[in-house]
Amino acid sequence: REQEGKVMIAVTVERDGQVIESLVEEGSAFEGLNHAALETIRSVGQFPPLPDGLEAPLHLHIPLIFKIDTR
Q: CA quadruple 11, 14, 15, 17: dihedral positive or negative?
């Protein structure tokens, strides 16, 4: 489909590493890329437990860049 773009995903993680929320914060022009970005985060399952000193829940903003490699 030759679609490229950047999708910013907002993720909220509990102290034990469990993802309690993930959503598209800034979508690309292509709905398929937005869906793929969310599926990528969901496929991670669970993050490692948060280190001492970090407040829970932790809010992350993760950019996912989809680019066609023509090499």
A: negative
> Residue 60: its pLDDT value, please?
96
DSSP of 9-66: EEEEE-TTSBEEEEEEEE--S-HHHHHHHHHHHHHH-BPPPPPTTS-SSEEEEEEEEE
Is the Cβ–Cβ distance between 25 and 58 less than 8 Å?
no
The count of residues in the chain is 71
Spans of the chain below 70 pLDDT: none
Q: Positive or negative CA dihedral for 53, 56, 58, 59?
A: negative
Which H/E stretch holds residue 6?
strand 5-13
- pLDDT at position 71, please? 85
pLDDT of residue 4: 96
